[in-house]
Amino acid sequence: MKYSEAIKSLIRKGLDEVNHSSAGHLSLSTRRKILQAINEPCIIGRISILCALKVYPIWNDLFRDDTDIIGLITKTEKYLLGQTSKKDLLKDADHLDMFADYYMEDDITASFAAKVAVHAAYDASSDEDMVISDYDSDEEVENPDEWDPAFLASLVYNDGIVDLGFIDDERNKEFWSWYLTDCIETACANDRLPYLAFANKATEVILTF
């Protein structure tokens, strides 16, 4: 998929918003406009998958030999390509959602890194809008289960998942700048998405995001 002028313009506006935000944040309204301009469920789903891949190494640090979460990420792309059923995707997502919950007390950041993959799977299989909710510093924080994968991934990446009052602003800016550039560009490309390679049950990142 090639960028339309509308998408390019919205990305430029988004980068300007991030650069001028004291917290380095990209608002939900801007994200919605970009996704609406893209208007292709497969591409939008790939953006969510890339957000899951962005923070996957945090989960992988907790479970070095785990293949289930990366397996869910790959299955989500297969679903978007029509290569697996919605039933099978949701079965895996439900199982791994509970699995991530089990380790919440051990490492909340790693657990939510896994949940980004779960949210990406749920969103890909949903007939509803893929961007559901966000937070506003002037409002009560909503249920994390309603946060979209990009926002949830940003909180994992910027350490805000533990306490929204202590977000690393530079990390937040870094995440949303990546989202607007490399993430969307990769999602719109025709190539298969970059994944992690496994060798001798040890994981190694072969591409950086």
UniProtKB/TrEMBL annotation:
InterPro entries membership: Imm5
In this chain the Immunity protein Imm5 domain maps to: 11-185
Q: What is the protein named?
A: Immunity protein Imm5 domain-containing protein
User: Which branch of life, at top level?
Assistant: Bacteria
